[in-house]
């Protein structure tokens, strides 16, 4: 069989210089006699991987004594069984088979070998909650598919990328109002499935785990949106309480940089009133009313967190300083 395959390949390379690019009348090698033309009833063939899924080729017309081979036997096997031309899928991909009969006619046919008939996803619905105005991500994956994946979103506010292995990363920025998007994932065989993405905002700045980390560290520090101003270590400490009951914390470096928090209600644990935040320098310029809460007071240090919303974005900060 291997020798006959080599002979047929040599013959085809001479008589079909246009290559194996499709299935048309031009793919026929004229017979040397008046034999019936070889006619296949399909333009391509899809076959699922596995011997149990082998598929017989629909030959509408021919002269019998068929021979067949696949150009890439790592993808498909093609052979004659009980007088029929049979194609068996070996691995995911596409190749060509070449069929001939005793009349001297040849036909080539694209075959597509695939893994599954149904594209299966880990999740059909995803809920993405982020701090207001912040980008969040969510990861999911294709459970079963045929590779060669693409993903498209019907809402430009939600983006997604997908790897060849089917790992999907979804990204979106929350807004004051919740919104949705539908992602369509498609594989190379044109199978598709959808994921509905719901995006909403939260004004809760810290998780319980994050609060635990903040409270475990007694280092004097002031943060905003996860960043600290480098001038803090050079600045003058602000830690006072005036006759109006305002507690004031922070620091100032001449006229260049400032980070100042003020609030009423003392330094005991709990939510405070009339919170104000003033800042300028590396962290930006702010003069904002804030929601502030003292989350820990161990008699030596005080830890506090605060939030405010500006231009539909949640800003959040925390501090630790001497009582």
Helix content: under 10%
Which consecutive residue ranges, at least 5 long each, have pLDDT under 50?
A: 1-32
Q: Structural class, from secondary structure content? A: mainly beta
Distance between the termini: 90 Å
Helix segment tally: 2
Strand proportion, as a percent range, falls in over 45%
If you average the pLDDT, what whole number results? 90
Radius of gyration: 35 Å
Largest sheet: 9 strands, antiparallel
- What kind of oligomer do you see? single chain
Following the backbone from N to C, one meets helices and strands in this order, namely: HEEEEEEEEEEEEEEEEEHEEEEEEEEE
Shape: rod-shaped
According to DSSP, the number of beta strands is 26
Q: How would you characterize this protein structure?
A:
This protein has 323 residues and is mainly beta. It is built from 2 helices and 26 strands. The strands form 6 sheets. Strands 18, 19, 20, 21, 22, 23, 24, 25 and 26 form a 9-stranded antiparallel β-sheet that branches. It has a 4-stranded mixed β-sheet with strand order 2-9-8-5, with no helix packed on it. β16 and β17 form a beta hairpin. The radius of gyration is 35 Å and the shape is rod-shaped. The N and C termini lie far apart (90 Å).
